[in-house]
Each structure stands twice: as C-alpha cells, then as structure tokens.
Amino acid sequence: MKYIIKSTEPQSIIDWKNLANDDWQPSWDNLMNPQKGTLRESLVEEQGYICCYCQQRIDTSTRTEIEHIITREECTRLGNEALKITYTNLIASCEGNRPPSRHVEIDKDRHCNNFRSNRSLLISPLDINCEDEFFYDFQGVMHGKTHNATITIENLNLKVLKDYRKAKITGVFYEADGITPIIFATEEKDQLFSYYQNKSNIDGDNKMKFPEFAAVIINVLNQLP
Length: 225
Description:
225 residues, two-stranded antiparallel sheet, two-stranded antiparallel ribbon, globular
C-alpha cells in the first residue's frame, strides 16, 4: 500500500455534477463516459500509475477499477448516495485478476479490487501514515504491524504478488547473482530514495509515474543500517 495524495477533482466532473436539477441528479449509476473515463484518468494520474493496494502498474483503460474507500454498499446503508461520486472517496485499483466474464468465477489469486468487494477498508491509502503500518522482508512477504494491518493485507501475500515483490527487491538490493547484497554508500541510498519517492517520466511517454512497488523499496531502504 502506498500513501495517496489527492489532487483536485477534474473540472469536467464538477461541471457534470452542476447539471443537477429537479429532474436529474448526478449519481454513480448514471456516471458514464466521457466523465467516467476522465475520472479514471485523474485518479490514475494522481497515483503515479500504480495500484493503490499492490503497487503494480495501472493505466487508464477500463481494466483499471475506480475503487471506493467507503464502499458503495456502505454509502447506501448510510443514506449518502452522493458519497459514491465524492472525489475524496475514490481511488484507482488494478483489476486484481478479475474474471473475463461476470459469469466466470475465479477463486485463485484474487487480490485488490477483485478481492475486496464490499469489505470495509481498515487502513486507507489516504491515511498519511498508512505505509508505516506494514513492512516487507527480503522474500517479498508483506507484514502487518497491527491487527488491522494484518487483516488489510489478507489478499496481498498471494504467491504471485510475493514473487513480484521479491524480484523487485532482489533487483535493487542484490548483485546480478541474486545472492550477494549490495552495500550502498549514503549518496547511493539517497539517490534510490529520490527515485522511488518521486514521480518521473520513467517510460518516456510524458506521464509522471512512480516506479512499480515504490513503497516496497522505500520500506526496505529504511530497514538498511
């Protein structure tokens, strides 16, 4: 999980909401393109093109999910339909091994949006201290420091995700043999911190992105002597 700093709601979404009248009210159910696409693009961009949960690369396609901090089911229970389209309640998640059809059930390796469903989010990526709730070992295993953190990562220690994280950690912290640890000078560690803490045009497509698993590498860097 990586802390997300929310940006300003897109003006086109504000304009769409301002069309409200006695006969029509903006809602999640009538949020269609181009507004829905604009909303997704804004969320993905502010997150630096990485999933709010697993930190894998996401893009602006329809395979990237618009995720609700307070679930839609809970918004309905609270009688607050407007919260479903409130920008500060929205983030972007990878599809989490979403089945190719709603009629196909995939029980294996479900994660992120596809796993969470209507579960309450005990630790939110919008909490400024959320990254401090977890730590990662050199095998790519994600650990929760509290009960809520442990529950939150229930679906983030699947083998596929652990293998991705381990490969990234090994590539950064070990020599090419994958065995010999790299001893970083202070200046080298500072450069790594800067690279993983900041968005940059890393793919040369003029889109400012975080590296994949950015918070994982920062977390491991902070464990070094």
